[in-house]
Amino acid sequence: MTALDTHAPTRMARTAPEVDARPAGTIADPAADARSVPRVDAVPKVLGLARFTDDLVVPGAWHGCTVRATVPHARLLGIERDPGFDWSRVVVLTAADIPGDNVIHLMADDQPVLAADEIQHFGEPVALVAAPTLALARAARDHIRVHADPLPPVLDMLAADHIFASYAIDRGDVEAGFAQADLVVEGTYRTGHQEHIYLEPQSMIAIPRPDGGVTVHGSLQCPYYVHAALKRALKLDADRCVVVQEETGGAFGGKEEFPSGPAIHAAMLALAVGRPVRLIYDRREDISVSTKRHPSVIRYRTGVTRDGRLVAQDIDITFDAGAYKTLSAVVLSRGTLHSGGPYACPNVRIRSRAVRTNTPPTGAFRGFGAPQAEFAAELQADRVAEKLGISPVELRERWAYRLGDRTPTNQELRESVSALDTLRAAARAADFEAQRRVFAAARSIDGGRTVRGIGLAMGWHGAGFTGGGEKYLASVAAVELTAEGRIRVLVDSTEMGQGMRTVLAQIAAQRLGIPLGEVEVARQDTSVVPNSGPTVASRTTMVVGGLLATAADRLRAAVEERAGGPFPATYSADARGNGGLRFDERFDGYPDIVWDETTYVGDAYPCFSWAATTAEVEVDLDTGEVAVRHVVSADDCGTVVNPLMAAGQVEGGTLQGVGYATIEEMKVEGGRFVNDRLATYLIPTAQDAPRITAVLLENPFSNAPHGAKGLGELPMDLAAPAVVAAIADATGVWIDELPATPERILAALDADREEAST
Ligand code: MOS
User: Fold this and answer.
1) Which of 224, 407, 515, 585 could crosslink 411 through cysteines, CB 3.0-4.6 Å?
2) Ligand 1 near 366 CB (within 6 A)
3) Is the preceding omega at residue 739 within 30 degrees of 0, hence cis?
């Protein structure tokens, strides 16, 4: 695992980990695997040659900016331009200037492009400005006043009365389950907003088209989401709006639904000015108004027998959706469906709701509701283990799903169940039980104020869209042999740093039997590529990659028949002689997946990925600071296409989870994000990064032609509960609210001492 040990090992005294006897199909050294080709986009990015949206030179472009609400809730009376300002070279637009419907089309269509009557959150767009220079555009923005009559804001999710979405899942008889229980454990867990902090802020450039339409270039995850939103708001037919994804500097869900708003804004301005318009957010504007991870309050009542059998779970979930619905119904759905954890339980009741508050809308963020639910589920499991006096590993050994078990939605787990394999692999690679004993025997590393501990969490992540989502999307992916004899992959899946361009090309190259360098990936331009669905939900490698594998198989067979020889040796000359060929493959459901959207019974996901994670921490008892030293993550994502990049997903998701666990705290006052800068909203840097050991397990999914499941979000689910469990092991106090900041840790230690002294 040397390639992954990128951080100077600040190792503590410990016994040597025993990493030999891993389950079959385990990849211990991703770097040494032949499939680990380097990312095709790595060199230009590392050399600074890659051009992101704001790097694009567009002659004659004007600059746009956004006039925003400065109150969380109000009746909007109108805007007033400063009569002393020179407005002659400035274009100003309000809701009255929207050519089509004043909605950012998504699911509920409740969010306006520009506020018309009522302001629902701080920072809500009210008007748009464009001018030949950025300085003039900003000056004009600052000379516009928004007149509004304040209304009382709802800022507390538990006091909110407007429910955007709710779910109820029942399995067995929960009261009968509690009646069998020898022990009932209750817990309430809270999580806060988390900001994506993609490297590149939201960026759009809109260019008017000769046909009266508009082409929008930008930083985004889902070209066809933006396309649909543009059509609706601008009242344009499909051909006259084109969306082109430019090089995108990170997204993590933050460029899933949010970019549709700025794309419409830029397009409206470009059409009004008759010139290209650049709309580039700076970091402060981006943090102030972009979506965040949903804050949550999650309550558990768990019933167990004396010997540790899980007999009842009663779970109640509230998510803060902010001012508009965005994707909250599906984020909450995923949170709800993951809240039981990877644990078999005969009697389960889950109730959940996403509510409206007058805060900026929350939305997609890597994990999509699962990190909140799995944080709560894992802390609750640890509390039960503590009460029973058994180890966290032993408890999970007893509870973990086995093949044939049924989930709370009555989904039978028919294949590819790796809960126990990942648990054992992580515990073994971390030498968990021995390490816990070592730390318990010698808690402090400096004979004083720094204590250490180790924690563990395990989890699951449903791969692909929930329920019937994939079938409804009917995604299309294509492989083309061009008339010039080149191979092209046509998908709208976007590269945002996760490796799409490499992995999908690898899948096509492998099926065709040709070198990776002979496969091109067409750019993500809606006038060029089909709709292969949004690049979300850990679905790209599994679903889009699966379609490509089948399309490539068909292309290979067709060419081999036509050319009368093996594909690699014949395809190029064959195309030049006989013309190009293209195969479009449309998703039409996985066999035997049955889901009832109205009752929430059935196969919630086509399959699950599984993981277990351990974390070793040091806690400074004087300052409350936590240093995460070593994380071991064992992840099963089915057949791995590129082990090095898979390990990279594990490292990145783990580090994002470490930030979520310890320092990423968005402070909200009066509905406004107060720490809206990188100086005040902290994320882990290389200095804070633990040593991360990724152990990849390959338990294939039989319905995907290449056996792959999802991975992108899975590691985000587990680092936080593992770190908080390690903090509890080190200090003896449980922090039930994320992030476990120094303030919260010190307060909990104080309360603990007070309790001990009374
Ligand atoms: Mo996502 S959080 O499914 O982009």
Assistant:
1) 407
2) yes
3) yes
Question: Does ligand 1 have an atom closer than 6 angstroms to the CB of 368?
Answer: yes
Reported pTM:
0.95
pLDDT, tens digit, 9 for 90 and up, residues 636-675: 999 999 999 999 999 999 999 999 999 999 999 999 999 9
Cβ of residue 253 lying under 6 Å from some atom of ligand 1: yes
Does the CB atom of residue 330 touch ligand 1 within 6 A?
no
Longest pairwise C-alpha distance within the chain: 90
Mean of per-residue pLDDT scores for the chain:
95
Best of 337, 536, 605 for a ligand 1 pocket test (most atoms within 8 Å of beta carbon): 536
CA of 364 to the centre of ligand 1 (A): 5
Residue 513 has pLDDT above 80, yes or no: yes
Domains of the chain: 54-153+196-289 (3.90.1170.50), 296-466+599-757 (3.30.365.10), 469-586 (3.30.365.10)
Percent of the chain whose predicted confidence (pLDDT) is above 70: 97
Question: For 191-232, what is each residue's pLDDT tens digit?
Answer: 999 999 999 999 999 999 999 999 999 999 999 999 999 999
Residue 47 pLDDT > 80: yes
Q: Please give the distance, rounded to the nearest whole angstrom, from the Cα atom of residue 713 to the centre of ligand 1.
A: 8
CA angle 65, 71, 77 (to 5 degrees): 80
Say if ligand 1 is within 6 A of residue 256 CB: yes
> Which is the closest atom of ligand 1 to the Cα of 253?
4
Ligand 1: centre distance to CA 252 (Å)? 6
